[in-house]
Amino acid sequence: MQEGNSIFSRLDVKKYILKKNLKRDLPASIVVFLVALPLCLGIALASGAPLFAGLIAGIIGGVVVASFSGSQLSVTGPAAGLTVIVLGAIAQLGSYQTFLLAVVLAGVMQMVLGMIKAGTIGNYFPSSVIEGMLAAIGLILILKQLPHALGVDSDFPGDESFFQKNDENTFSAINSALSHFSLAAIVISALSIAILLFWPKIKKVSSIPAPLIVVVLGIALSYAFKSTSYALEAKQMVAIPVVQGWSEFMGLFTLPNFAAIGNKDVWVVAGTIAIVASLETLLSIEAVDKIDPIKRISPTNRELFAQGIGNVASGMIGGLPMTSVIVRSSANVNAGGRTKMSAIFHGCWLLLSLLFIPGIINMVPLACLAAILLVTGYKLTRIELFKHMYHKGWDQFVPFVVTVVAVLLTDLLKGVAIGMLVSIFYLLRTNMRNPFFYRIHEEGNKKNIRIKLAEEVSFLNKAAIQVMLNRIPKETTVTIDGSNSRYIDPDVLETIFNYKHNAYTKGIIVILEDIKSHYIVPKLTNKLEDINN
């Protein structure tokens, strides 16, 4: 009887948690939907693919990937970082159907990467680089959305590259927009920003999502300006495909060309998509975990497998390749999302809007959606973050700033790669200066030195050990003690043995204690057993 009561109590707790989270996830899903809609369409347009392909990727990313993913806040969809690859691949392969086969194969490759635990690569991204990436994305959102907020929509929504396809760059586009702005767009975006900032502070109405109010206001104001000389043009509005009936909807789907399975170019494109999409996903997952208020850790291998399932599904019915995307994920966090239900709901809203209310969606001005992204960008790149990184020291602040600047002036992957290189430089520099891996004891007449190595001595310690050994004075007896060492890197061992072999030329006697000729990397399970014992 007590066991039955405990089961019911656990069920009640789960229902309570689900209900409590639903109050947050449902409004957050609407915000993510509003952010994702123009991005899906814009990325499809920039990729040279059908507009419907972007929506398919967004729907599957929300419903399918989120269902299999272990991340609670990550949102998946078509990514701006893949637009150049997709555009070139479609042209190279000759048809969109053949490209879809490459998307399916890329998904299979990602599933394999998840099964062989390649997602652990994400654990090696330095915190300073991830923080820099988040700040850079925030600045990109602000800089890229300013022209849309001013009513100039010459660049596709969601573009993150410094150099744009319209021969402008991020800064010149803002300058051009200032001389070709739309008064109606400025009014809509300004009022939208004010609502986004102040609406949540009014307790009586704060339960209604501010972005939803922004969209309603945007539609109303666009109608108000319609009869004036400041009326918004069609290109300044959302342009979702309007489907006339179920048969036309089914006709939008495209199947991959499996006859091209033997084409080596298809496999090259698939491999490229799999690698780039996986890297962007791992970076995004790491970043989302950073801004998760509950500080949960997402299983990266499971995420790669989920992304693979999503890309297989997307490619099978005509969708674009997808990744976990930081912009939509950030919007989800900032909107108060708590579980993966917000991402799943956002995918459902994308599907329902396409089927039932495309006409209403096409009344939404891009300016009010730009306002939502501007506020999201501001929250990502707040001044406090720069101050926090500065107080952590130069070895954290410099890679952070370099990552911010590099991402701004190039793109996400190139910028992160540059930030990683700078971070590695500081890591090596720290290891050069930090003698934690050895101790020197001077005995008697200071001609006897004992060097006691630490439990683990890695390749990163090699340079510092070489410098230390080269500074040992002549006519000295040196004892290198490895009794505490569970593992010594082969390169470090070679350095020690070479030093012993050549030290006699300086009159130095080298004694090796408990230094093996070979070490096996200790397994984590063994360490855990030692702890338990």
UniProtKB/TrEMBL annotation:
Keyword Transmembrane part of the UniProt annotation: yes
GO BP field: transmembrane transport
Topology term for the membrane: Multi-pass membrane protein
Domain SLC26A/SulP transporter: 22-391
GO cellular component, as recorded: membrane
Keywords, alphabetical: Membrane, Transmembrane, Transmembrane helix
Localization per record: Membrane
Sequence intervals crossing the membrane: 26-45, 51-68, 75-93, 99-116, 123-143, 177-199, 206-225, 237-259, 266-285, 305-327, 348-377, 397-428
Protein name as annotated: SulP family sulfate permease
